[in-house]
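pasting input
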Amino acid sequence: MRLYDLIQQNKNLRFIDTVSGKSSMVTEFHKSIAIENSQGLGFVYSDNQIDSIEVFLNFLESNFTISLLNAQLNIQFKQSLEDIYRPYYIYDTSRTEIEGYKKCSVSESITLFKRKTKQENPINKDIKLLLSTSGTTGNPKFVKLSDNNLVKNAMSILDYLPITSHDIVPLNIPITYVYGLSIFTTNCIKSNTIVCTNKDVLQKDFWEDFKIYKFSTLSGVPYVYEMLNRIGFFKKEHEFLRYMTQAGGKLSEKLISIMIAYSKTHNIPFFTQYGQTEAAGRMAFLHPNDLLTREYSIGKPIKGGEFELKEGTNELIYYGENVFGGYAKGLDDLVTFNKSNKLFTGDIAKKDADGYYYIVGRIKRIMKLFGTRINLDEVELILKNNLDGNTFICTCIEDKYLSINYLNKELTDNSIKKVLREKLNLHSSSLVIKYIENIPLTTNGKVDYKAITKNED
Amino acid sequence: MNTTEQLYKVIAKALDISTEIITDQLEYQSIVEWDSMSHLILVEALETTYNIEIETEDILEMSTVAKLKDVLKKKNIEMI
């Protein structure tokens, strides 16, 4: 069964718009907007509000391939993605016009942009969804996912999360982020109410909604848990909260102990999960019963999944039907979908005697800053392109700081900060900027990142 | 003596913005620079600058510059 049909099967499902308080049953969203009956690509810039959800569901039902993108993406990035992929439809409430597109009122409240000239760009029928590997850099690299990938992952998650048909679930993580998407798909299939919101946990409105709608669960990347802790969430009793989930990187030791204590005192199961966009969501979870004894473990593979450690490097390899069908960097890559059950995660892991896995390092040059995946090579390129072709060497300091080394004495810290603020919305407090005289190289002439990292310690 | 000018400097530094765009009406999440992350940086900066403690209710209350001033006023920090 398709993801869309599984969602429509949950006939009691309703969506609530927190701004207007209006609610809609899932059945009301069936073919609720007029989309052409053909194949093609649709860009959905989602802000997690009810209209975005309605558009997304309609495209899921259609034969269109969807690219879910963050509505807050920098406008230049949006335009360059559109130049590369030439989508037939665009949903973006932040723009009033787009060159080469005409506005179409497709329902009372929803407007889509439709390309004036339809081009025949063949898209493999297995590609249902394109997700960005990084939410913010505007890199045109997309992960190609099939409907089957999404269904298989949702079913595996439903196997371990205690979702019930009475649950009321806020979308407090953007659905453009694979973790947010899996919260959306699983709860659409099984829970009762989805509360569409773009409010965050530092807003009074969010907590008013929390009380009014009686949220059954909360989800978060480590940074959300930091915020919850800062505002004293774990010091209080929350009558309707049944369980909590976390993904998107490791929690700090301090927060893990806070969560263990909170979970125990209030009998709130806490699920930590491990996943990647390339796996359409989750690959492993730690059962709440194991939290006390193996708090640093990513747990065991989800139902239908298997892990293996690559000989020699100990890279974690995942096997499962949720593994993606390759990357796309442009239109040509949309012709193929390489079905594969095998995913090289880029993470280095170890396994204990009882079969629990632990992440011990990373092969790829990727860091997580506030739950967002940042490719360090990409940051180097963005800086180069925006600062007169100068050379930058970026490394990560404990997933907390982005370190930027530059070679041209005449550059200023401020000019670097400005680019990173404008392009990637990075706050200067998470940057460590420094001038270096030369680049340490390895014996085969590559940048010796290890040597640079060492100097930073 | 606490001045609005000084407060705006604290806000500008925490949010990574220019003091020129700060007004009483400036709202949390209305500009990309004032997001959840910089909001917590701002809270910390205010705590250090004015030697105060800001509780949960007040963190959630400070959704505009004007409301932020109200919170400070409650703590006997008045701007001139």
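fyi Chain B touches chain A at residues 16, 28-29, 32-33, 35-41, 43, 55-56, 59-61, 63 (CB under 8 Å).
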